[in-house]
Queue: 4 jobs
Job 1
Amino acid sequence: ETTVTLMPTMLGFTAVPKSLADVVAVPAGYSVSVLYRLGDPISGSVPAYANNGTDTNFAQRAGDHHDGMSYFGLSASGTAPDPTSSLRGLLAMNHENITESYLHPNGVTAGAVRLASEAIKEIEAHGVSVIEVARASATGAWSYTQGSTLNRRVTPNTPMTFSGPVRGNAMLRTRQSPDGTAGRGTINNCANGTMPWHTYLTCEENWAGYFRRDTGDVAARTAAGRAKENVSLARYGIGQGRAGNYAWSTAVPTDATSTVFARWNATIVPGMPNDGTGDFSHEPFTFGWVVEIDPFDPAAAPRKRTALGRMNHEGCEVGRTIAGVKPAFYMGDDAQNEYIYKFVSATPWSAADATATNRLAIGDKYLDAGTLYVAKFNADGSGQWLPLVFGQGPLTSANATYPFADQADVLVNARLAADALGATPMDRPEWTAVNPATGEMYCTLTNNASRSAGRVDAANPRAYTDPKTDGRAASTGNVNGHVIRLRETADTSEATTFAWDIYAFGAGSDLDPNNINLSQLDATNDFSSPDGMWFGLPSNVTGQATPLLWLQTDDGSYTDVTNCMMLAAIPGTVGDGGTRTVVNSLGGASSSAVTRIGKTPGTTLRRFLVGPKQCEITGIHSTPDGKSLFVNIQHPGEGGGAGNNTSSWPYTQTGAATGSARPRSATIVITKDDGGVVGI
Ligand code: FEO
Ligand code: CA
Ligand code: CA
Ligand code: CA
């Protein structure tokens, strides 16, 4: 490990006010440029984006809904990783979802059968981009390199392989891969992970929503001897009687042999083999994974890392890597009352692997064998990592709710295993981030409308009512979310116990300081629904004792007051605050909970950016010198549609009068006008 000189730490900018304007606002002394927008062509042969619904070939354009993102420095030769390069690099980013209407000339064409031409655009607008980006000079402008041989789109149709304990398992046998070793594509990719061996992890979040499952499928599976699949599908939110997002399965392919639309219907087809190889009844088991991509090898098939379990994977960030110690990978499962997980490799870290050229093989080494754990938070501020290991505790064939067959069954059904172990249901675990100076792990708990006064606990202690000023009904539950953090026992990633507290509670600064605005936020830092999160540069680059924590919001509750935002923080350490008794506004004294609260953020948490209308701020990374910060603006104007757009960002960013220009998700670059490190 590097020894660093501890320097005083302070935030070096003036807070940006809350705003409802259709523009990205940053502090005085900073500039924003727009780098990579929905529809921008990545190959040289694809025309510029018309942005009127007529564009095609999204497999060679930027997808929609930019999300998690990593910057990888690129060597002068243009082919290899160079972790010191701040002028040339690759950006890998997720395209989580679409704002469907804006992709078509007059919105979605009505009818029981989707037009194939519309469905293929929508499918290809999902997935991942890898693009080459470059800065003209140390103080110059950034651009992406259209036509770079490293540019790549990964879509829901891209061939992939399975690796780890579930590879080849009966549950992964499909029409496309009868031996259960190959997958097809990735979807609803939310947050990410940046591996020290220069690969990109992309995480499949709300994949379940895309599947159609017709009424009658429960009975059909039971009759076919597949009743366990009904338990599993229900636990992952795929009940019967659903059309699936965007109803892609209704579209008729122009190529009669193609299954790109039919695969989104998971209903058993009578007369087909009963092992998933004739219909698409196993297709849902091929999603819900963490996927590793080598951004430096566009020909390499991405690998679905099954050892990390199957869930609504939000993100997967690695903890500190220390030679001889098994590294940990921290993950949230984003749905109400789901859990926080960590995977500990079976293999201790070897520093030489950071410069190896067989990057996906290094991924095999650290991500295919190890132990998956789920978190239990105790009221006294302690916690346990409970192992998801077949044969231990309730994870056996004798389990009454779901009889587990083997370790692959435990991983495919990680949620059922975590239920059985007694993990703590959380207020929607979103991103994880690890403080490189301390090893402490932070996880955003974005909000939870189903958190009620009767079932608050120390780690999820708030249930309250937040009125609205824009005519909407009041929100209830944990309306504004919080950020929990933990410190592993003895500061080792291999620990099976930890200490925890809550770093900050989201809230409007006008709300009750005793029971809701527990972190005593003020007008410079009040926020709601924390989601994206990333620790900035290590101390030895910034000269600071503590790296900056960047916090981004994805909020519907606070949008009567402000658009979504990004804040910077100097976060302190676990246990730097105290304990408090919280009285829930929904339930009175009987529902009070003692909880552990971090030091009041005060001047160490400050609003740095506010986004345009109806956007989410998500995805963040920087160049290694800290002077260029990349941020994604997701779905501006998502509440509108073709002919009724509710934002014209990014056109509004330059002040141009653009009338009704359709909004576009986009990557922006933030630089400091004096050429310094962003944020300090
Ligand atoms: Fe894609 Fe949980 O946000
Ligand atoms: Ca998110
Ligand atoms: Ca969110
Ligand atoms: Ca979103």
Job 2
Amino acid sequence: MKTDLPQSFRRLEYRPPVYTFDQVELDIALDPARTIVKSRIDVLPGKGFVAGAPLVLVGQDLEFVSLRINGDAHRHFELTPETLSIHSLPNEGKDPFILEIISICVPEKNTTLMGLYVSNGNFFTQCEAEGFRKITYFLDRPDVMARYRVTLQAREAQCPVLLSNGNLLKTEKLPNGWHSATWEDPFPKPSYLFALVAGKLECIEETITTSSGAKKLLQIWVEPHDLKKTRHAMDSLIASIHWDEKRFGLELDLERFMIVAVSDFNMGAMENKGLNVFNTKFVLAQPETATDADFANIESVVAHEYFHNWTGNRVTCQDWFQLSLKEGLTVFRDQEFSADQMGSESGRAVKRIEDVRLLRQMQFPEDAGPMAHPIRPDEYQEINNFYTVTVYEKGSEVVRMYQTLLGREGFRKGMDLYFKRHDGQAVTCDDFLAAMADANHRDLTQFKNWYSQAGTPRVKVQEHYDATKKQYQLTLSQSCAPSPGQPDKKPFHIPLKIRLITSGNEQVEKLLELTEPEQSWTFDNISERPVLSINRDFSAPIQLEFDQSEADLLTLFSGDDDPFSRWEAGQKLAMQMILGNRLPDAKLIEAYRTLLMDPQLDPAFKELALTLPAETYLYEQCKSVDPQQIFTARRAFRKEIAKQLQLEWAALYQQNQTPGPFKPDAVSAGKRALKNLALSMLLEADPKTWAPMAVNQYQTADNMTDRYAALSALVIHGAKEANECLADFFNRFANDALVIDKWFALQSSRPPVEGLELTLSDVKHLREHPAFKLNNPNRARSVIHAFCANNPASFHQPDGSGYAFWVESVLALDAINPQVAARLARALDRWRLFAEPYQSKMKAALEQVAACQTLSPDVREVIGKALG
Ligand code: PHE
Ligand code: ZN
């Protein structure tokens, strides 16, 4: 009988490998229908060696052909669908030996996009986390680090380009139109960093000189028709290389560094050693086809993958529970890089606000839901489900807190010690913390709770001002709600930047360290009741419980010198009013007006300050969510801002034009953002009057930011001109897959509009559209995820029709690509937070998916935890 209890992996069950690999030689004859992989491996006893133990390799969807040890056929082995166990090793495994294996895989049938697969006729691999086992039998775990020499063979006409990690050693012509290329990577690496790419690709290249004076070859490989869209990625790569030298003293260690773009990819991009593989979405850009957001995302993803070369590759993870060791740290590094690229202090602040907004919109719900996990999880069923906003974005906030506590210099000392101790090793989050602590002679024991406990801490603020004593007392208490498997929480070490704002000149600015459940601070010589500015720059990833008066919030919103806190005060005011079903009052409208008209303020900041909190963030503030009510209240609030400030919006629209050729820099992008918010607000106020101006912008735009913003304003506000522009957009960009993704996503994420049919009926038509492809992740996400995850008011219908669509889509996707299906499966995570009738209908939908007998482990884990 088959038990269907899913298998769990536990962090504390880590055991060092019994055997390890030194040198790995791969010989791969590429054929879409039958790729032959020969491996030749030097095997040695590992850290966990036990004499006589079998060598247990893993393999998936492989056809086994043969096995040799030290050159001789070896018969003592056992095959299961997922393992190859080899017994009777020479001298009980105590002596090194040479293992040779031949196996076969079928790239053209591989729709999971893990392992070796075909996309648009070219070959690609994706090995993180556990894809290498779909290429050959191996010790597919990150603490086995080996040096690789790889020979690729293919038909030259079909695959003129053959790439792998490291340096190119030689190329050869072979009989029958075949050819080969041999690559050698001088740095030991885990199998998840292996990559090969083969096919009809072309590149742009550049030679640069790094800090030590070494020359390096940089290449960006794409399909020939995309060559003209690679400049921005190349510029971003060069900027990243220079930044890492300057900020962290880290230099590129290979003679050659390559980026390859692929249109079928599960994630954003992958940091394979010297051969980064990217979703086309994060490489290709030119002004006519990519928005400012696309340009910024490309810059940050290129930087992220490049930065992994040190934080991830040179120092890697001992096991997958340590994922945040490389991801949290590398996200922190890419955020700091992007902030520096903004070119000004106010630009840095804008980047910080954007990052916090994303964290709160995406990660806070995760941290309060059934999949909540510490940044270092203790248990998983499918590691692919743990590439989460918690591991990445909260992980980055945790790294940022070291810098806040230790200062920039202290943080740099910690990084230097981390590399000094661990270069070439596979290590843990504890090792990182120890390096930070030791380099700064600090005891960071309590800081470990950020790694072990899930949930967003809540910090309650109580203040008291004594006018006679001129004394201000601040009391902070912390708590953290239970999360799965963690009923009780220990106090966190929370750095809180504060400032006491008064009209006098005794400005008190301090970094408080909250470590106890409750702590008080007294400030003397405070001449008047101060307004408290707290968690400035979002110094800790917490929720504040603070009944600050609307008057104080208005004071902060009108003039806090910390841009984050200023923005935050505005968000809080708007949030309280929306949740209280109120419209903005006269004072808030005046504050908005003053801010919008302030010539000193950055347009990008104005745009953020006038963008309302997302619906999903508002949900988290409720005990019982009525999604239609929240949508209606938020939209009414927006309409009021639009109407009351209509003259200002019109003026801002004119003032923030960016004449001349398109430039993607932060200042120009900020102006476009504000101008396009103004356009959207004008249509919100009065679509009939302003739609022609949007149509005009749509037609005359010389860049995608402006064209898409105009189209989007027409669609979102239900303008009658929308359909004609949508049709024009499709025809104009029919040959550009990434732009067609935008066309699908815009329609799928249209919120409800009075007088129009529900978006779901459009979505069902889009799914039947000839250009829709379920097996291309970008396209599938542009319709299905855009609707189920990014369009809450359309998705959450009281009749449950959105959930029925979700059930069908999860099941259809799961049969093709479990990773993409499992992401979609998470759209119902927060079902317990919803009011009736939503809650029961969401539960029923989850149960319907759970009842499917053939679910992948990926989807099974997500659904099981949601219902558990
Ligand atoms: N390691 C990649 C990154 O963060 C993400 C990734 C994970 C890509 C798994 C593919 C598969 O940069
Ligand atoms: Zn990463």
Job 3
Amino acid sequence: NYSLKQLQQIDAAHHLHPFTDHKELRDIGSRMITRAEGPFIYDSEGTELLDGMAGLWCVNVGYGRTELAEAAYEQMKEMPYYNSFFKCSTPTPVLLSKKLAELAPKNINQVFYGSSGSESNDTALRLVRHYWALEGKPQKNRIISRKMAYHGSTVAGTSLGGMDGMHQQLGGAVPNIVHVMMPYAYELALPGENDHDFGLRAARSVEDAILEAGAENVAAFIGEPIMGAGGVKIPPESYWPEIQRICRKYDVLLMLDEVITGYGRTGEWFAAQTFGIEADTITTAKALTSGYQPLSALLVGDRIAATLVDKGGEFYHGYTYSGHPVACAVALKNLEIIEREGLVERVKTDTGPYFAQMLKERIAGHGLVGEVRSVGLMGAIEIVKDKATKERISPVGSAAVAVRDHAIANGMMMRATGDSMILSPPLIWTRATIDMAGERILKALDLAERDLRK
Ligand code: PLP
């Protein structure tokens, strides 16, 4: 048995963490999360935290689901692994694909598996370029994405994403990917410009990029229905219909990244359904297994699938763990739980609206809060110095970090990104859990304001 101190020392000596300043980690030591149950996580010292992030936007059915452990155990005993290369398969990815085709928008009937959202976006990028090559248009390979987008951490994921810091460290992105403005009215709308007009203008930046490159050179547009890691940026209602119109007009494929929004978060199975988007590919991962196993599923629309199948020839792409039987067994059980407990419907009709109301009535009026926003159980609180002028506290991000630290000290795990405080809780949250979160966040805001305005 190791003490916390020992574990922290070993961790700092041997374990490189994702998205972490290792010098800071060495000085502070990591928090060891050792147990979790329902909506709560517990650290090694027994501290209980309400998990406002569902792990990393993924534990939609909450913690402690022994049914998922049993599904994995049964599958491991029977058939722990076999691949789906070379015209083989195991049964669970077959059955999961059928289930996903039933849940997905109606133009989607095929699935390609990986182990992570990043891998799945690599697959999507390769697949759309392969599609145009099969269609005899190999030059139609440019992808349009957005600044502040997050599409994962592999080379292709980083290149598709629009995070400056990540691009700088990459030192050379995958070619032929361009980034246009994000649809975030609070920050980018012009004086006097309403949300509707701003949404159209943001969408038309995609049209401008298509015209600049020439439509004959543009393969696809990729976007998260709601930008997640970029700060839960919710586009105006006018945005997605205009994007759809532009993609159709120029015969540009529409790729959605629903790694966060998939499987109930927005109050529908997919945000494509919430926003009425017809996509050619939908990248999903995370909540597909509620994070209990690593698994991603790229949902592929009929247009691309028909070409891929009918033209024949091999698509030279795949992962050892594509369609992993254990991960797929867990996904099937996870989707069964979401359905059985009516979690998607509950987010749509009950907890989603109640969450929005809590943010508006209890949080929005606070002196540090410029804006609150949410769809379903995904929301953000924008931290400002001055509500009227939207002036930020400098340096960027420092205020949100202060609020986050007070939140954690008061039993509320949430995330800070830029000046946004982010919430993406398990879908098992009830009205009582939402009230508890509201109280803890308000307390954190008060304490942070006291420090910041000293
Ligand atoms: N796409 C989006 C929208 C994400 O939020 C993430 C991860 O947070 C990814 C892709 C990458 O997924 P993964 O971390 O599983 O590779």
Job 4
Amino acid sequence: MIHQLVYYSRNTVPGGDRAMLTNMREILSVSQRNNARDAITGFLIFDTQWFVQILEGERGKVTETYNRIARDPRHASATILNVRDVPARLFPNWTMGGAMRTPDVQEIYLAHGFGGPIDPTRLKSEQVVALALDLQAFEESRRQGRRLAS
Ligand code: FAD
């Protein structure tokens, strides 16, 4: 079985979209390095002021990774929405995929009923997973398009 943990947290890094993009890139770069080492996969969503992340892998490694992330000063009030064992990884190809809420993914948010900013304090983990799976599919098709174009 694969252990899956879903949490949300509040961004503490000040600045606009550009600062956030840099922040996301740094976080994803370190995450991809560490998660490849620890066989962790998942997806990180950033919407306005909230992070929502899904981590999946071996139970001990997921717990260790979450504990390290929760201490990071770039966010605060990390709150676990759900932990469960699942038969297989939902994000097998992503040591950590990520998506900021930009206009090109707005339709995906709308399709999931998020017209305005998401409020993770009112979210169910299944909604997070469903949104992340669609964002993952969008990112994968975008990457595929880039590969075909080059
Ligand atoms: P280094 O990257 O060398 O960092 C050393 C220390 O400096 C750590 O305590 C780190 O938190 C801190 N640090 C590094 N950069 C900054 C910065 N710009 N501002 C403030 N402090 C900083 N890590 C993962 O391994 N996997 C994940 O999936 C993952 N997801 C994350 C999601 C979010 C929303 C955030 C905010 C962070 C995430 N991280 C993730 C990063 C994690 O919190 C640690 O920073 C990282 O795992 C530490 O890696 P390292 O041991 O190689 O140390």
